[in-house]
Amino acid sequence: MGTTRLFCVLSALTCSAQAAAPQRWAPPHIASALFESSPAFTPDGREIYFMRSSAQFREWRILHSRCGREGWSEPQPAPFAAAAPAQDADPFVSFDGKRAYFVSTRQNRDGSDQLDIWRASRGTDGSWGEPQRLPEPVNSAASELLPRETADGRLYFGSDRDGGHGQGDIYIATPQPDGSWQVANAGPPLSTPANEYEADISRDGLSLVVVADRGTRSHLYRYALQQGRWNALGQIAADDSVFQVGPLHSPNGDRLLFAQRDSAYSGELFLTDLSRQPDTRWPPRCGD
């Protein structure tokens, strides 16, 4: 019995659920003629932060929308967004709603597109404080992408820094009692000689999706934690003719949002099920 089939049996997942074609998730105001990706929701599901770029996937900006009676509001720049020409991308809101992570070029005085991880904290009044750049060794002279905080406070991210297994790898940063960070390469099978550059991990820590270019273009690869080791479950069904990017697990880990090009002019968010009976209340419904 293959690894994917065995995992499906043991965890009540079905291989057919993974193979089903993803469905477009394109609420009014969120979807546009531009490229939307990398969604993140607050714990109550009433706010969404996401990245919008040009149709060519350039000029990245983080936008923010609130859920109201008539649906999602017209997106506005996130409170922690940088002014142009700096670019921001890959937002994520911690599971307790107290921290927002993202990557930015704002630290580059030379105007380069090297990306570092930044973090903003949310006060009791709901406002976001001034974002702070995370220190080395979380950040490096290379680019860091898609920061994802786990329930125990570690940080998963991608980076093409020196010393990896390939063109880009997945890293895990662990905060230390003195306020410093310890960073380690996630290692095989998540990091390979190919180009892995994003990873989203479920809230329970049992499912992980890697964005990797392993010879053609970037696609989504799923892993399950079994007996303390990550086991590969194969590629998530999506459009092989285009790249996928910016995955986000649902709180239960049974659904996945991601972005891919939807036409010659735009990229949209798509939704796929990772289990036989997912909680269909996610993504959060707004305006129903």
From TrEMBL:
Q: Which PANTHER family match?
A: PROTEIN TOLB, PROTEIN TOLB HOMOLOG
Q: Which UniProt keywords are listed?
A: Signal
Q: Which family does it belong to?
A: Belongs to the TolB family.
Gene3D superfamilies named among the record's database cross-references: TolB, C-terminal domain (2.120.10.30)
Question: Which organism encodes this protein?
Answer: Tahibacter aquaticus
User: Which residue spans traverse the membrane?
Assistant: none
Cited InterPro entries = 6-blade_b-propeller_TolB-like, WD40
Q: Where is the signal peptide?
A: 1-19
Q: Which SUPFAM superfamilies match?
A: DPP6 N-terminal domain-like (SSF82171)
Official protein name in the record: WD40 repeat protein
Question: Short name of one Pfam family for this protein?
Answer: PD40
Q: Which domain of life is it from?
A: Bacteria
